[in-house]
From TrEMBL:
InterPro entries per UniProt: DUF1848
Source organism of this protein record: Ilyobacter polytropus (strain ATCC 51220 / DSM 2926 / LMG 16218 / CuHBu1)
Protein name (Swiss-Prot/TrEMBL): DUF1848 domain-containing protein
Length: 314
């Protein structure tokens, strides 16, 4: 089983103590987002949890506690964007984030820290030249600490449009995507960072930019030193190539409050849910009420030969 920690909220930044306690106790609960009366019990152990993919904008709270993940295999999807507090209200300043990125890379190796530059958006202040300048600034800082950058372009979902109201944020045209992709590829080559896209329809292969998987069987296999047998995650949108995983996050619970986020409907809901967080609960948000149906989540192993390799910290 592969754990996704998490597409729905930034667990490393805000809920890492809860996660480590769940690792200690060996299980957690996940409510069905479509039916809160249904709860899955997810076993966390080196035997059952074959791999963990962390998603974050700030793993700082985890950095001095990675030894608690001894025996587990994992990598980080780490977002570093060029946006200010108007767009990413609660994300720390870039110098703090870049310092955290470098420290994490030194601890676990640069193959396992993937830079995300997404979503790429435009407004009255942010144009193609802005992205060209700041992508290179960040790439220069991270060039010795990562091997890959995954980019994606903003999709204006109805929730995103609502949250971005009044900010004049818009999607890129196809022509703008091509123009920026060419610049980004050149910068990637300059700093020896491979550029790939996430969940995009647009074909950028003429610039040497291919589609990738954020939860990637190839990379997981490289980290494990074993073959992986896994299917596409059918619960994700068509353009997403990720393999199947179990996401343990909760919608409307990420205090980063990025205005482009598809997982937060409103800041009011985020604040309400954050107050319901109980570090001692097996649920990320709230507690079991007693009227739910709790079912053990079982997934087919993805590791060929079912051999587990104890993880080292570098």
């Amino acid at each position: 089983m592969i754990l996704s920690v998490s597409r729905r909220t930034d667990i490393p930044a805000f809920y890492s103590e809860w996660f480590f306690k769940r690792v200690e106790e060996g299980f957690l609960y996940v409510r069905n987002p479509m039916n809160p009366k249904q709860i899955s019990k997810v076993i966390i152990s080196p035997e059952e949890t074959e791999f963990i993919v962390f998603w974050t904008k700030n793993p700082s709270p985890m950095l001095n506690k990675l030894e608690k993940l001894e025996g587990y295999n994992y990598y980080f999807q780490f977002t570093v964007n060029p946006y200010d507090k108007e767009i990413e209200p609660e994300v720390p300043k870039k110098n703090i984030i870049i310092k955290s990125f470098k420290e994490l890379s030194r601890k676990i190796g640069k193959k396992r820290v993937i830079w995300r530059y997404d979503p790429i958006l435009l407004n009255d202040k942010i144009d193609i030249n802005y992205h060209k300048i700041y992508f290179e600034k960040i790439a220069k800082e991270l060039s010795d600490y990562t091997e890959k950058c995954i980019i994606s372009f903003i999709d204006m979902y109805s929730k995103t449009k609502k949250n971005c109201s009044g900010k004049n944020i818009r999607e890129l045209t196809e022509k703008e995507k091509f123009r920026l992709a060419e610049h980004i590829k050149e910068i990637g080559e300059k700093y020896n960072i491979k550029i790939e896209t996430c969940a995009e329809k647009i074909d950028l292969s003429k610039y040497g930019i291919e589609h990738t998987k954020c939860i990637d069987d190839k990379l997981i296999g490289e980290v494990l030193g074993k073959g992986i047998s896994a299917q596409k995650d059918k619960s994700q949108r068509e353009e997403c190539r990720c393999i199947k995983s179990v996401d343990i996050g909760v919608y409307n619970s990420c205090p980063n409050k990025c205005i482009y986020c598809y997982a937060n409907f409103s800041c009011e809901l985020v604040d309400k849910n954050a107050k319901l967080h109980d570090i001692n609960s097996p649920l990320l948000i709230g507690n079991v009420n007693g009227d739910e149906k709790i079912t053990l989540r079982k997934e087919k192993p993805v590791v060929a030969g079912k051999r587990y390799i104890k993880q080292r910290l570098f």
